[in-house]
Write a structure and sequence with these properties.
Two copies of one chain form a homodimer. Chain A is built from eleven helices and two strands. With 238 residues, chain A is mainly alpha-helical. Chain A binds a DNA duplex (30 and 30 nucleotides) through helix 3.
Chain lengths: 238, 238
Amino acid sequence: MESSHRNLTHQLVHDLGRKITEGIYSVGGRLPSEADLCVQFNISRTATREAVKMLTAKGLISSRPRQGITVADFKHWNLFDADVLNWILLGRPDLYLLRHFLQLRLAIEAEAAYLAAQNASEDDLINIENALIRMKDATTGQDDTHEADIEFHQSVISATNNPFFKQLINFITTALKVNIRFTNRMIAVTEDEYQAHVEIFEFIKNGNSQAAFDAAMVTQRATIALVDAQIVALENKS
Amino acid sequence: MESSHRNLTHQLVHDLGRKITEGIYSVGGRLPSEADLCVQFNISRTATREAVKMLTAKGLISSRPRQGITVADFKHWNLFDADVLNWILLGRPDLYLLRHFLQLRLAIEAEAAYLAAQNASEDDLINIENALIRMKDATTGQDDTHEADIEFHQSVISATNNPFFKQLINFITTALKVNIRFTNRMIAVTEDEYQAHVEIFEFIKNGNSQAAFDAAMVTQRATIALVDAQIVALENKS
DNA sequence: CAATAGTATTTATAATACAATTAAAGAAAT
DNA sequence: ATTTCTTTAATTGTATTATAAATACTATTG
């Protein structure tokens, strides 16, 4: 169990964060007052208030005198905060949300390939190539499939040398992990998929940004199509 | 002066946030200890600690016993947090950062146009059209140029009906405001620009997602080219 | 020299008291 | 009855003090 965190404050942050994102405390609704939280969790008001402040900073709640602690509207949630994202995705597995997730991932990764082709340093290229080698090994079962895949995408985004894109690496990584869980593709990377990644790498290496963009786009739209198909199948069942 | 915030805790958050993003406290370096902050700002340890927790939640700092409060590595900063983003952009105007910003904006807005073409509701289309009307008025000086432009982009992103994209509206808005400040285009929207936006709208309305994507992409790359030109000019001077 | 124990510094937590804010109830006025 | 004002009470905001826990640094010891 990963639930035991650094300290009392962080434990409470995690606990409430999960409950909010799971909908146990629903949007617009109220959390227990500070005093109640102290009793429920048997901790001091100091620790409680610090947890409340942290969740406020992440956009999940707001607290005002006499009104108490209310769950903020979803649009205020900091979806790009690593904690918030994990709470949402790990707690509420949902194909529709996954599709929304992948749509953003597509937007980011295609342009990342474009920018990588323009800006990748020698080291960046080596990193991408190393990930490819791991993928190759994964096709024959000698390395971990997911990790190699994740490493490839991470190294491409990193090669953009754009801080905003780099910040999204965690976001993408989480997306991939959830994606893998949902599509149940625990199987090995196929030769075709490997080749598609090699192609993207070649374009990046040659500085052919538009081709890298297009190639990444094709791969991404294919992934979304997979999820769309699953959604259609699910909707036909019901 | 916008510096007087809701309460002492938030004031300190704002103050330290600005100082960190401006580099007054540099990455890897240390902030004053809790005790020192109490003295410097003449507030209680309670308020100080709460501020520290909020900044920790935003990824700007980390604090550990005996070690004190240290400025976290840039990659941990929550760039998509509205506060952090504002502190960075308003405090440190930088053409290179602006370019990085626009590169991400391009990625998001092009795909947003694509998704809007697929998912826009009747209301969404009305909102976009209203923004266009404002832009038209702006070309003849009857409405505010920036606001109309911002409203257009906001309504397109909103029409994706994708929560992740919608969360980025604030991000884009900030980008546009900074962009306007930097490029000094305080002038009216030109007829050409207006027509480009109308074109995107038409594609969205007709559900022609690929065309909407391409049209948005062209507009965005043109904007980036403008900034690139400014950067080149600047580098030639020095 | 290396491992160990001790020390001091800093954050973490607790407990208590009071202040400030504000929603809701009640009173007064029209 | 409706509005306006006042009061009340619930809840967060701030301050203070005390103690615990964590850990970088120092000293000791074998």
